Amino acid sequence: MSHQAAFAAALLDPQLPCPDGLCSANGADPASRFSVYRNNVQSSLINALADSYPVVQQLVGEDFFRAMAAVFVQQHPPETPLMSRYGEALPAFLDAFEPAASVPYLADVARLERLRTRAYHAADALPVRPEQITAALADPTALSDLRFKLHPSLHLLDSHYAVVAIWAAHQGDATLTGIDTRHGQHALVLRNGLDVEVFAVEPGASVFLHHLLNDQPLLLSAQNSPPFDLSHTLALLIASNAIVHLKNKESP
């Protein structure tokens, strides 16, 4: 292992000794200085995880979360200087983290929070004006091949648990009382202006939106989805400024 690799590994694992060859300009003990630096690095990474996953922390408590995050930090060092990207692997980590098994929906709540972070940092795109969408939907000659390009911030999460209700209950003083956490939900996440919004949509609407994201025509996407309220779904997309381009045979 190179000196740099040993230094990085020791930074994230408090069980490892101070790397050899360190010295201090002011004569202080290198091991003591390194220990302080290591604690600061680990604390910064754990704080970054807490900022990205506030509901996960609320669900398990701060002490449990920070202990869990310390294990995650040891196993998953940062791969990019962008701290908004750090913690992308936490949902998969939680799937296999046995001490959190009593909260089976924890990983999916983490996935929802990660999608909110991705939506917040997604590229901007100008929405199509509602009257343009209405005109396109009313044109029978182009409707069969009409495609919608959706906003870059739009993401979907299909969960076996009530992730939207669980997440929403932790945005205020509400609790999980009355929520059947085992009732699966389909989440739609997108940024509307500067605000990241989270909606629970019908199973058929989620399938429909997946088709649209795969560049399938609007009518074919609706036909290949389980029954759902198409008008309501289109109204939600329009109201959320989620449609950023209309495509048909004549357009690029």
TrEMBL record:
Source organism, top-level taxon: Bacteria
Limits of the Putative DNA-binding domain: 4-94
Annotated GO MF terms: DNA binding
Keywords linked to the UniProt accession: DNA-binding
Gene3D superfamilies referenced in this protein's UniProt entry, alphabetically: DUF2063 (1.10.150.690)
UniProt-recorded name of the protein: DNA-binding domain-containing protein
Natural source organism: Pseudomonas monsensis
